[in-house]
Design brief:
3-stranded antiparallel sheet, Type I-E CRISPR-associated protein Cse1/CasA, globular, CRISPR-assoc_prot_Cse1, Topoisomerase I, Chain A, domain 4, 15 strands, 17 helices, alpha+beta, 38% helix
């Protein structure tokens, strides 16, 4: 017998958070009331946290007054307040109360009432931490896949709308696109196609506000999240074929979903295709990813066309900062030639706030990068990208500081490449194949600097002496890369010490070492010593000075 049930997400616990006392689940009301106490979201996987953050941001921005003439001042008033505008938020949630009931018979939260098909999808399709066909990669198995608590199910519904895999779906009855009971691929959820970047503060309140981009002009009436629109049916919404604002794009219904429950737990789910969406030229609406002009897309469109930049899963975020900062590019500016790259809207917004002195330039914040990697025509999850850098707004706003951090990254990458060449030379001198040692050395070099660079970056302030900071970094790189080189030389073997002819010239370990050390000395150590003499102790910012 099916029991009547309700689960009001406004008052029932479902959002996983971390506080000083540990992790817990709290309601929508409490997540906003306690935002100054909550340290961070703490869901099952990083992409779920970002999906929930985007949901909370939409609620917050829709709860604010419909329009305001001075968005930067409005933001500053929120930042300086001790708490979020709770009365406005709860009034907004009350106005849309029926749409936040997970099990509502007519308007279930982010679902379609009465959705039906010839078969259901199974909870494994909803739970992104259970890779299809590879259950041994997860701790969730057995009973944990046969049912979900209402709280877990709610989190995964939010995640599915943003990150669900592509591939063939169960065909929903009433959807004209269905053929032979199947819904054919329309792509992943929009967030799955983005290289998402978000700012994080010391509390959830700070995190929400740091990502709350308030454009000077927006159509409040047109930009409605999915719960402010009429309830969806199983088919495509042809009259609403493209998002009309930030709130719309962040809650885009890429899937039609209906949870099945027994009155106590969720036992099954139906996931069908929803409204298709293309990521092309959404740069004015989607604020959490960088963008790059696409020559291939422009061949068809004939106009400047921007596509989102996804994270490179093979490297840490610090090696891709040039795409995120994109200095010299002013988002939204009018130029005779369209820029080749656009920074994420959240970064451009913090730069504006810093320049207008609405946020202190030395406020400690974190820049977090999250993304989903898919395989086999985007029909399965391969991995999740999750990385973080601690920095200060001054680094984003001051072009001199930004130039320093980009130059530092370039010098580090160049040093690692030299380390790889050194390893290859040693291998060839010993009569061995070079590609394996070269790649192994590169991986070792990046592993060292993946730890060093974030530490150095986190120490930069608006008052930092650029010459001192750059010298410190150059000595750090020289020391770390030289140390790995010492290990490579020690393990090179007798054959490498004797050497042999390579490309018609003699090569041995001593000669390879001479080239390698000469590069480090000329490009790092000597330049550092020209900037600041070698010394021990503390620099003017109180950071330990590194000695080569």
């Amino acid at each position: 017998m099916r029991h009547a049930a309700t689960y009001d997400l406004r008052t029932q616990p479902w959002i996983a958070v971390r506080t000083a006392g540990g992790t817990e689940e709290i309601s929508l009301h409490d997540v906003f009331r306690r935002a100054s106490e909550v340290q961070a979201l703490a869901g099952e996987i990083p992409t779920q946290d970002v999906a929930i953050l985007r949901l909370l941001l939409v609620i917050l921005r829709r709860a604010l007054p419909e329009s305001f003439d001075y968005p930067h001042e409005r933001w500053a008033s929120l930042w300086e307040a001790e708490s979020l505008p709770i009365a406005d938020i709860e009034a907004y949630l009350k106005e849309h109360a029926d749409r936040f009931d997970l099990l509502h018979p007519e308007t279930p939260f982010m679902q379609v009432a009465g959705l039906a098909a010839s078969k259901t999808s199974g909870l494994v399709k909803l739970i992104a931490e259970v890779p299809a066909g590879s259950p041994y990669f997860t701790t969730r198995a057995g009973e944990a896949v046969r049912s979900l608590s209402y709280a877990e199910a709610a989190r995964w519904v939010v995640h599915s709308q943003q990150f669900d895999v592509s591939g063939i779906k169960t065909g929903a009855h009433g959807d004209e696109r269905v053929k032979g009971g199947k819904g054919y691929p329309i792509g992943t959820g929009l967030s799955g196609r983005l290289g998402l970047v978000v700012f994080e503060g010391g509390t959830l309140r700070e995190t929400l506000l740091l990502n709350l981009v308030l454009p000077p002009e927006e159509d409040y009436e047109a930009d409605r999240p999915v719960w402010e629109r009429a309830p969806l049916g199983p088919g495509i919404e042809a009259a609403h074929s493209a998002p009309r604002g930030i709130a719309d794009v962040m809650t885009w219904p890429s899937r039609r979903i209906l949870l099945h429950h027994d009155g106590s737990v969720v036992t099954d789910v139906l996931i069908a295709n929803g409204d298709p969406i293309h990521a092309r030229n959404l740069h004015d609406l989607e604020t959490m990813t960088a963008w790059r002009r696409s020559a291939n897309q422009e061949k068809t469109s004939g106009v400047p066309t921007y596509m989102p930049v996804q994270h490179d899963v093979t490297r840490k975020m610090w090696r891709g900062l040039e795409g995120l900062l994109a200095f010299g590019v002013q988002n939204g500016s009018v130029r005779s030639e369209a820029p080749v790259a656009l920074k994420p809207g959240v970064i451009a917004w913090i730069q504006q706030l810093t320049g207008r002195k609405k946020i202190d330039r030395d406020t400690p914040i974190s820049l977090r990068a999250v993304g989903m990697s898919y395989g086999t025509q985007d029909s399965m999850i391969l991995s999740i990208y999750d990385d973080e850098l601690r920095l200060r707004p001054a680094v984003l706003h001051d072009e001199r500081l930004a130039g320093l951090v980009l130059t530092a990254a370039e010098e580090a990458v160049a040093a690692v490449q030299q380390l790889g060449r050194f390893a290859a030379n040693l291998a060839e001198a010993g009569g061995r194949e070079a590609s394996g040692p070269r790649e192994g050395a590169r991986l070792a070099g990046f592993a060292r600097l993946d730890l060093s660079y974030p530490t150095w970056l986190g120490g930069l302030r608006s008052s930092s002496d650029l010459a001192v900071a750059q010298a410190q970094w150059r000595r750090t790189v020289a020391r770390e890369i030289s140390s790995i080189g010492d290990d490579l030389l020690r393990d090179a073997g007798d054959d490498a010490l004797i050497g042999r002819k390579v490309n018609g010239k003699h090569l041995d370990a001593a000669l390879a070492d001479l080239w390698f050390r000469s590069y480090l000395r000329k490009n790092l150590t000597e330049l550092a010593n020209q900037q600041t003499p070698e010394r021990t102790g503390d620099d003017h910012d109180g950071h330990a000075q590194t000695v080569s």
